[in-house]
Design goal:
three-stranded antiparallel β-sheet, 64% helix, single chain
């Protein structure tokens, strides 16, 4: 079936538990025994992480088939074998992500492409659940595009490439055309009705022993029974014609001539098959879903429409492409794949006018294949199947409204599935092409700019996002109506930028105006309006108006649930649900916040997976809620887990990673891990100005957290300096009557008390207590902390009667809210001071 040499795989066959996306085995695979042995030896003899091996050579020499044969021949040595198309960087992470479910990880439809791919790489590195794995990266081009994503660990990596630069990075196995003996053996296998060794030798000589050309010749002979002498005569004539016409030299003349003869015979036998092949030539070289040819839509040629309308003729045409070796058919996957060299030869035979027509019709086919709503996770497989064709088909060059909608939907899909780098790459390339074609003020171009601003924000690149979004909003407001969806999205983006710069009041004002327009345009019961309300609620919270924020979010969730909308956009639903749990916690209702937070986090784990950005935020907020409620063990465990995931997925300097680090430092301090907390808090405070402007309230509030740790570890004077600077910065940005400012003021009073300045501590503490009562209410936990500290100051000042009166009132309030068993109440009852801390909410 594969070679006259014995199969070197073990006698007892072990079937891989995971076998995915490997193309069908070529039943006529021939020779290459020495190369396969060298490849096996190079991979198998390594006892640590294996340096990837590369199969490289010119097009048509059989690199891919060699890798396929290796996978099948040695499959008994592996528990997992997975195939990854690597010619387009945008496909690599998607292909890796598709391995998530077989590894027992959340799939890309649940956790997003980026998170799923990272989880797969981590599982492979750890060898869990499989240590014997093989990943094949097919048709890799530039090493720089792949080297950072090659999995490390106990398994094996195999690369195929035409780029010889891989030889300087990995151990290469050079693959060339067949030896003459291999060519003869291949042809005698490929032609079932028989071909003499002499004729096979003559044919191989003329075709230069190129495997793809031999496959073409063998398929033609098998299908038509053409005599070798006749084939050679026609081949010589066609080669002569090609040379006389100065055909491009980048294609081997033997391949071009053999292809031409196959096409001529195919056209004579079934013209519809040639029609279909020409369309396939303008997709990408990745598998084409058969369902892309399932609809008759406006804009298609009469001949293609007639073919698509007749499923019997269409099925036969597809079958003929396979029989003539012009396409590889994967029947279980229902895909058609045409070798990139054959695609190039097909395109080269067509006039520029015909190429433009066919390419445009392929754009229409792709647009019709992908569903309308890219936010809905059930539609993501369609977008994933189409993803590899967007670049090669030059979708960006097409000004057709339906095709541009496809492009915008693809960006939305990548954004929703958390593949932010790929989304950014597409957006930037589309901006260049669409600006050139339509001008900078076209609404499609402006929509792209809004999308790019949102992506930069998700990536934590706030300064660049702010600069770009300000320019975009100015252009949008000139070019589009005030209630246009792009205008409204640009408005919300501008508000987000203001939040990122610490300007909470202007952000609120813009979000309120955007919400008014959303309601007028879309009504009350629409996801666009619900998201806009969520932004306003976030603004309320940043202004310490937790009651207002809570009322808005409760209203939104009632509307979503009444409309049954939870499943149509689970990420947005989780974001809003988590926002409500956070607002309830900030209001001081810790037990209720835990209940809501636990349900929200469970929803995120189920619907989006543990590494989705929104699930991580829900987990971080739940850890804070557990800490506030006094459940320190669970809080610490979850905080450590969430922080590790953030670091691995987003890096140390992403704003969400810094928020997770703040959460972890706070619970470590709470559980008396002072040195660990101090080290992490110091590092976080150093990193925050890399993300936010120096005057941002989060910088100052986190410095206040560090000040608490300085005082606890014995440096009250340094704590005082940090708190004084933080309070001055917060007052300048937010005023004194803000939750963040008063949190730092409460701690500064403790610094003063620790330094013996009791009178100053009392004045600052009682002033803060009065303000907290007015801002958050008499029963808020921070208000009670300020009261507890004031009692300690009154006792230190000898004002026992006042202290006793305040003690009685505070004790009763603890009893009715947190209960006297709560750790804060216990500290109060023991007469000790309480510290306050800050956890930054998402912007």
């Amino acid at each position: 079936m594969i070679s006259s040499q014995p199969d070197p795989s073990p006698t007892t066959e072990r079937i891989p538990q995971v076998w995915g996306k490997v193309p069908p085995r070529n039943k006529n695979f021939t020779g290459r025994t020495d190369l396969l042995g060298r490849l096996r030896e190079g991979l198998a003899n390594r006892v640590t992480a294996v340096v990837p091996h590369a199969l490289h050579g010119l097009g048509g020499v059989g690199k891919t088939q060699m890798a396929v044969e290796y996978a099948y021949r040695y499959r008994s040595s592996y528990d997992l074998v997975w195939w990854i198309p690597a010619d387009q960087p945008v496909l690599i992470r998607s292909s890796l992500a598709s391995l998530a479910h077989p590894l027992g990880l959340p799939s890309a439809s649940v956790s997003g492409v980026e998170d799923a791919a990272n989880a797969v790489l981590d599982a492979l590195r750890r060898g869990e659940p499989y240590t014997d794995w093989l990943l094949i990266f097919d048709n890799a081009d530039e090493p720089e595009e792949l080297i950072d994503i090659l999995p490390q660990g106990p398994g094996h990596v195999l690369i195929t490439s035409r780029n010889h630069r891989w030889a300087g990075i990995v151990d290469p196995v050079q693959i060339d055309v067949f030896t003459r003996e291999e060519s003869v053996e291949f042809l005698t296998k490929r032609v079932p009705r028989g071909i003499s060794r002499e004729d096979a030798d003559r044919l191989a000589e003329e075709l230069g022993d190129l495997p793809l050309a031999l496959e073409q010749a063998g398929a033609l002979h098998a299908e038509t029974g053409i005599a070798v002498s006749e084939y050679l005569k026609l081949l010589a004539q066609r080669t002569s014609q090609l040379l006389s016409h100065g055909k491009p030299t980048e294609y081997p003349a033997s391949m071009t001539a053999a292809w031409g003869l196959s096409v001529a015979s195919l056209e004579e036998k079934l013209p519809e098959a040639l029609i279909l092949l020409r369309y396939c030539a303008f997709f990408g070289p990745e598998p084409i879903p058969r369902d892309a040819f399932s609809k008759v839509i406006p804009g298609l040629s009469t001949e293609l429409s007639a073919l698509l309308a007749d499923p019997i003729r269409l099925g036969r045409a597809i079958g003929e492409l396979g029989r003539f070796a012009l396409a590889r058919l994967d029947l279980p996957a229902r895909t058609i794949q045409v070798h990139r060299l054959i695609q190039a030869l097909v395109r080269d035979e067509l006039s520029e006018t015909e190429q433009r027509r066919l390419r445009h019709e392929v754009h229409l086919l792709l647009a019709a294949y992908t569903p309308d709503d890219p936010n809905d996770a059930k539609n993501w497989p369609f977008y994933l199947n189409a993803l590899g064709h967007v670049g090669p088909a030059e979708v960006a060059q097409c000004p057709d409204p339906d095709v541009r909608k496809l492009a915008l939907n693809m960006i939305t899909y990548l954004y929703s599935s958390a593949d932010y780098p790929s989304a950014q790459s597409f957006v930037e390339s589309f901006i260049r092409d669409w600006t050139k074609a339509s001008g900078p003020e076209h609404q499609d171009v402006l929509t792209l700019h809004v999308n790019l601003g949102n992506l930069l924000r998700e990536l934590g690149q706030y300064p660049e996002a702010t600069e770009r979004s300000a320019r975009t909003l100015e252009m949008v407001e000139k070019a589009l109506p005030p209630d246009h969806e792009t205008t409204l999205r640009a408005l919300r983006g501008r508000a987000a930028d203001l939040r990122a710069s610490g300007d909470f009041q202007p952000a609120y004002e813009i979000d309120e105006e955007a919400l008014r327009r959303y309601k007028a345009r879309f009504g009350e019961e629409d996801w666009s309006t619900w998201r806009a309300i969520n932004s306003v609620a976030l603004d309320y919270g940043l202004r310490s108006d937790y009651a207002g924020a809570r009322a808005l979010l409760e209203q939104v969730l009632r509307g979503i649930r009444a409309a049954g909308g939870q499943s149509s956009d689970p990420a947005s639903y989780l974001n809003i649900y988590t926002g409500l749990a956070r607002t309830v916690r900030l209001s001081g209702d810790y037990a209720e916040a835990c209940d809501l937070g636990e349900d929200a986090y469970a929803y995120g784990l189920e619907q989006l997976g543990p590494e989705h950005a929104w699930t991580l935020r829900a987990g971080k907020d739940l850890s804070v809620a557990w800490r506030r409620a006094g459940d320190y063990a669970r809080s610490l465990e979850l905080a450590e887990e969430i922080h590790q995931r953030y670091v691995r997925i987003f890096g140390l300097d992403h704003p969400d990673t810094l928020a997770a680090a703040t959460c972890l430092a706070n619970i470590r301090r709470t559980t008396a891990q002072f040195q660990e907390a101090l080290i992490l808090a110091e590092d976080t405070v150093r990193r925050y100005p890399r993300v936010y402007a120096p005057e941002h309230p989060y910088n100052h509030a986190c410095a206040g957290n560090l000040a608490v740790l300085r005082r606890i570890t014995g440096d009250a004077e340094e704590a005082r300096k940090l708190d004084e600077q933080a309070l001055a910065g917060l007052e300048l940005k937010l005023g004194r009557d803000h939750h963040y400012s008063l949190t730092v003021a409460v701690n500064l009073a403790s610094d003063l008390a620790d330094l013996g300045e009791v009178e100053s501590a009392y004045r600052l503490g009682t002033g803060s207590l009065r303000r907290l009562r007015a801002l958050l209410g008499d029963n808020h936990p921070l208000t009670l902390s300020a009261a507890a500290n004031s009692i300690a100051d009154l006792r230190a000042l000898g004002r026992d009667e006042e202290a006793a009166a305040l003690f009685g009132d505070t004790e009763e309030r603890y009893r009715r809210t947190l209960t006297l068993e709560h750790p804060d109440a216990q500290v109060f009852l023991e007469g000790r001071r309480l510290d306050a801390d800050f956890d930054p909410p998402p912007i």
